[in-house]
From TrEMBL:
UniProt entry tagged with the keyword Metal-binding: no
Annotated region of DNA binding: 34-53
An MF annotation (GO) of this entry: transcription cis-regulatory region binding
Signal peptide: none
Tagged with keyword DNA-binding: yes
InterPro entries: BetI_C, Homeodomain-like_sf, HTH-type_TetR-like_transc_reg, HTH_TetR, Tet_transcr_reg_TetR-rel_C_sf
Coiled coil: none
Protein name, per record: Transcriptional regulator TetR family
Residue span, HTH tetR-type domain: 11-71
UniProt keyword annotations, A-Z: DNA-binding, Repressor, Transcription, Transcription regulation
């Protein structure tokens, strides 16, 4: 990449560019969010986008990183309050509904980055780090609840976390591709499937 992350987000203008790209993606999609559109919305020159980010791909990564950090902070707060298997199940359901109903642009952006990652190793590394952070946070909370005797799990914490988070991402894509589908029965069945991996322990 042409610029390091410290330089990328060092100024107010850079942050405005990231926010403008996020807004553009939510309205126009990834393909329609050109540097010209983003520059106008951010109130900066097109050349400044190249100076800070080097490419559209780099800017998309920064948008995803910022959104992932916000989501991770929110998820960490909810995980800290989860005390048993039911709490974890409800957290998962709330996160899925929030993603499908209020954050579809984030899922579209991740899908675009997954595609780019197939031919750009640097984006693959960034994407892996983003998704791993969420998995690690979930796995750590699972291990704490297991140690406290509040839950039992059907596999290693990291494995269960990967399954639960991957399950959510897959269903989000499914419902985004078919917004008229009834989510309720599918989500309920998915919640029961997750419940097979995460059960209440003796101290729940």
């Amino acid at each position: 990449m042409a610029n390091d992350a410290t330089k990328t987000l060092a100024t107010d203008k850079a942050l405005r560019i990231v926010d403008a790209m996020r807004s553009s993606v939510s309205r126009r999609g990834v393909a329609g969010s050109t540097f010209d559109h983003v520059a106008r919305e951010a109130g900066v020159s097109r050349g400044l986008l190249h100076y800070y980010f080097g490419s559209k791909e780099r800017l998309l990564v920064e948008v995803a990183k910022r959104d992932s950090e916000v989501r991770l902070e929110a998820m960490s707060g909810e995980l800290a309050r989860a005390a048993n298997a039911e709490d974890l199940g409800m957290l998962w359901v709330r996160s899925l509904y929030a993603t499908v109903r209020h954050e579809p642009a984030f899922v579209s952006l991740l899908l675009e980055l997954y595609t780019l990652a197939q031919r750009m190793p640097e984006i693959a590394d960034e994407l892996s780090a983003m998704t791993q952070a969420m998995t690690d946070a979930f796995a750590q909370r699972l291990q704490t609840l297991v140690d406290d005797g509040r839950i039992t799990i059907g596999a290693a914490p990291e494995v269960v976390a990967d399954v639960v988070i991957g399950f959510g991402h897959g269903l989000a894509l499914r419902f985004m591709s078919n917004p008229e589908a009834d989510m309720e029965p599918v989500v309920e069945a998915a919640k029961r499937a997750v419940g097979a991996l995460v059960r209440n322990g003796p101290k729940a």
